[in-house]
Amino acid sequence: MVGYTLDDLIKHGKVKPDSRVELADSRIGMVVRAGAAKPDISTIEGLRQTLLNAKSIAYSDSASGVYIERELFKKLGIEDGDVQGEDGPEDSCRVRRRERRL
Asked: What are the structural domain ranges in the chain?
């Protein structure tokens, strides 16, 4: 079970707080198209700028995607207006596009 969901159950008295056990650590990765320049994400600001400059950002609709949308973007100071979200090509995917005007 995802940590924030378990925390909510604990908060509402549905689960004993001392019964929580971390079973896994799920990592999030980043990929770019073949032949594209490798972005510098070695710093927080580098990651932030890479996301803001990306033509599109795709992530799953599972726990990791929820983390990206609700937590990571906020931690990086990326506001809802900075990137626009829409359903992706499959139900399990969200695609966020940043439209640029010239």
From this structure: 38-102
Tokens of 88: 């992706």
Per the DSSP assignment, residues forming a β-bridge with 57 are 96
- C-alpha closest to that of 38 among 1, 47, 74: 47
CB 59 within 8 Å of CB 44: no
Alpha carbon distances (Å) from 93 to 30, 33, 52, 58, 67: 15, 18, 19, 7, 14
Contacts of 52 (CB under 8 A, 6+ apart): 78, 82, 83, 98
- Segment 64-100, tens digit of pLDDT: 888 888 889 999 998 866 665 555 555 445 555 544 4
Half-sphere exposure of residue 83, counting CA atoms within 13 Å on the CB side? 24
pTM: 0.63
